[in-house]
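so my prof wants the structure for this chain in the tokens format not the other one, which i didnt know existed until like an hour ago. anyway here's the sequence
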Amino acid sequence: MQKPAKVKRIGSGRPSSSGRAAKISKAQQPSEQLYERLPELQLIYDTAPVGLAFLTLDCRYLQINQRLTEICGISVADHIGRSVRETVPQVADQVEKLIQAIVRTGEPITGVEVRGQRADKLNADHIWITNWHPLKDPEGRIVGVNVVAEDITERKRAEAVLAASENALRESEKRFRELADNIDQFAWTADTDGRRYWYNKRWHDYAGTTLEEMQGFGWQKLHHPDHLERVVQGIRKSFKGDAPWEDTFPLRGRDGKYRWFLARALPIRNEAGEVVRWFGTNTDITEQMEAEKALRELNETLEQRVEAQTRERFQIWNVSQDLLVVTDADGKFLSVNPAWTVLLGWSEAELLGKTSQWLLHPDDRERTRAETSQLAAGHVTQRFEIRFRHKDGSYRWLSWKAVQDQGRIYAMARDVTELKNAENKLMEARRELSQVARRTTLAAMSGAIAHEIRQPLGAIVTNANAGLRWLNRPAPDLDEVRDTLTHIVADGHRASEVIQSVRAMFAKGDHAGTPLDTNELIRETIALASNELEAARVVVDLELHEQLPLISAHRGQLQQVVLNIITNAADAMRTIDDRARVLRVRSRSFDLNGVAVSVQDSGTGIDPKNIDRVFDAFFTTKTNGTGMGLAICRSIVEAHGGNLSVSQGVPHGSVFHIVLPGIQ
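here's what i got, hopefully its the right format
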């Protein structure tokens, strides 16, 4: 083959005598001559399915086929005679190093990846794998390098897709195992013959086994002997028919105890619909089984229990001596027990369908309406006392308890007529006793005063008579008369001192006392009056401040003051029926070292026009009072350097305030 023909075949139509050909040095001529002796090489270049090129040792192209030019997008003619640095400068450094390495070692270099180098970046995502082989002359000298490049873009893409799929599969398996290990159920997989090859962590935690122990049919070791054969037969039948499996049985745990489990298994199919494996779970249902057992036992006896309870309640309804009633939300009687007839004389037919308004005492109707409103608002009625009319026209006192539930009112009333009568008699007796006590006290006080004054007055009278006798003598003995008058004066002073000592109880002045704990005094006084307070159904509410300063006082006198106020408060609450009877006693520090005590009741209170007169001597609002109690109390408090006052209670009753100085 002649050289001009070769240049024409691989050239670009330019004259072969161009300056580009002149660039081929003498050192390159052996390479060119070698290719001229191989005319069949041109056919290989033109028909090869891969890219081919021949480079001189200074990295110039002597030969290149069209497939290899796809890497950089330059034509074959533009490569011939030019260096890699001129045509593809992006990879020049890499190519020059490869050529140098081949020249140095004499060995080929394979598997070098090259990406597309087109200036327009259209093939930037394409990848070629290149192999670099030295070309030697007959003497073994390297005269050039053959380059073979294969486009592996699609292969790389397939490998990337495969790698991504494998990675996704690994991630999916990882997530599945994480999920399976953290669910409450035991999970496992088995082949189509029932041999299990995987269990989740929950299974091993419960059973205390390893995977090696449980692989294959090792799972049968945990089954209760009484259930194993049935379970095995059920699994075989389901697996053979490709049908989901479900069963309930006990499994032994690591502690040797059995718990009940609900087991399910589903077939996993491939794209062809064939079963390739089974996925199963075991759910602990021990508590559910026990609850169902208890429920069954309960249901077996429930009817009998309901019947027994109904019979018991019916008997209680019939034999109860208290009035029992069920009404609708408007108060109409829906059901009444026989006690209504026994206690009030009205028959069931006369009561049902009616409200209680026609039975109420006229004075109790307003209070009843108010209490009914409270009941409708969800409050519970406790000890609400009103009067109902007996069939004979008399009235009976009833103490009610009631509650509303789902549009019904359930109420119970107890006949307290005898109790109310007893209370009234007790109150009358207490009033009489109080009057007698006051009279006795005044009598004792009068007797004491009379006893003390009688002696000096008697001496005065005796001395006066003696003086008269001395004066009536024919010769009056003036010395005796003078001496008698001196005795009369002394006896008069003695009488005055007695009177002053009595007045001292009710006047301000220095009274030597002993250190006293006010809270202790209050508690002792409440204890003394407990019987009277309980009889009046009074609730005591103590709010005593701790660490009060001590006071200097006469315990008996101050205790009499507190007792008098508490007794008056109890009397003021005895007639109260529409609210709670509460006695609230408070103590607190006052000024620097004083003590303040307040006693508040929820009684009838004091008429504002009389509030400034209640401490006056002989003033009283009671029919049988002497008017001395509060006057004496104020005198005792003031004698201790304190103050006693009263104010209106909010919203009801009155409040007595005692202020006493502490120990200086």
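also thought this was worth mentioning. The mean pLDDT is 81.
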